[in-house]
Design brief:
Elements: H1 9-22, H2 26-47, E1 55-62, E2 65-67, H3 72-78, E3 82-83, H4 97-103, E4 107-110, H5 117-121, H6 124-128, H7 137-140, E5 144-147, H8 149-152, H9 159-171, E6 185-187
Parallel strand pairs: 1-3, 1-4, 4-5
Antiparallel strand pairs: 1-2, 5-6
Helix pairs in contact: 1-2, 2-9
């Protein structure tokens, strides 16, 4: 029996290797894990060139509000952001709206657990109706995004690396471009990141 319960991106890579070993596919698993690590390292190296680390609010659920957990805070850090809430050692947890406003996020990434972009967009008005929404730096600067969480952030596996690349473009568009796959994410204000 093989139990998979990753918390970090490195755990996901280890799980791929573990599944490969259990199925007699060590070489293929190593190839996949190595390619994923190269992409992770590439994002980390480029993000390290940034002049600033914007405060990022990652929203896993909107009512009640939860920040992302598991590997999401790590992904934000690797992509060159500073988590408003959560860190690599904690899972997702509920947030108070006053604390969200106080955190003054510079980038907001909606990633409702298990939702694609179309479904996640339906929940944006719930937060946008809250007092103080328009005063948030991310809203004022039109840096509010929705990502296909079902594909790129909610489930462990190789597509988390694509999620990392998408986040990198959202957090540091001056360093990253062309990272967002078709229908992978949208920018709520201004032009679409990708639609």
């Amino acid at each position: 029996m093989l139990s998979l319960d990753p918390q970090y991106l490195s755990d996901v890579l280890a799980d791929i290797r573990g599944v490969g070993h259990a199925t007699g596919s060590d070489d293929k698993a190593e190839e996949i894990a190595s390619r994923m690590q190269q992409r992770i390292d590439s994002v980390a190296d480029r993000a390290a060139l940034a002049n600033a680390r914007p405060r990022v609010l990652h929203v896993e659920w909107v009512d009640p509000i939860f920040c992302g957990g598991h590997w999401v805070p790590e992904m934000v850090e690797i992509a060159g952001g500073e988590n408003c809430f959560g860190d690599k050692e904690t899972g997702s947890f509920q947030l108070e709206w006053d604390a969200v406003v106080e955190s003054q996020p510079e980038v907001i990434i909606f990633m409702p657990c298990g939702f694609d972009v179309k479904r996640a967009l339906q929940d944006v008005p719930i937060l946008a109706a809250r007092e103080g929404w328009d005063s948030l730096p991310a809203v004022r600067d039109q840096r509010v995004y929705v990502i296909d969480a079902s594909a790129y952030t909610s489930r462990s596996g190789p597509r988390l690396v694509t999620g990392l690349e998408i986040m990198a473009e959202m957090i540091h568009p001056e360093l990253f471009s062309g990272m967002v796959p078709e229908l992978g994410a949208v920018r709520l204000y201004g032009s679409l990141v990708k639609a």
